[in-house]
Amino acid sequence: xxxxxxxxxxxxxxxxxxxxxxxxxxxxxxxxxxxxxxxxxxxxxxxxxxxxxxxxxxxxxxxxxxxxxxxxxxxxxxxxxxxxxxxxxxxxxxxxxxxxxxxxxxxxxxxxxxxxxxxxxxxxxxxxxxxxxxxxxxxxxxxxxxxxxxxxxxxx
Length: 156
What we know:
- The protein is α/β, with parallel strands linked by helices and 156 residues long.
- It contains five helices and five strands; from the N terminus they run αβαβαβαβαβ.
- β1, α2 and β2 (63-70) form a beta-alpha-beta unit.
- The N and C termini lie close together (7 Å).
């Protein structure tokens, strides 16, 4: 999975360079990650891979600009109230929340965003959204806008 993320980052550099927006020697890389995972354990591993990618970019002299979006079943893990999370998954859900709090404060992290559309269907309340996560009306629209700003879309 980490290889896929790094390959997508390399591709984004190449594509952006070809379009004239950035060259292969770019000093900045914009990445928009789209999470929809139903398993907090899997989501946590993906977040770890994003963190590794962020650190590798910094180590190579590239400034990351990272947005992480949450839609679908990943919406359960941006909430402060975990009563809707299956009991066996709650420990991992708490780890996801801690990881999100840690990552939000990291250099290069631009935004953590929760799509509003899946909340009602899952009986989740916008009022229970983690303070580190911004509620957006429609995650697809937000992702499209990020792509217009030069962010590479990545669905890990």
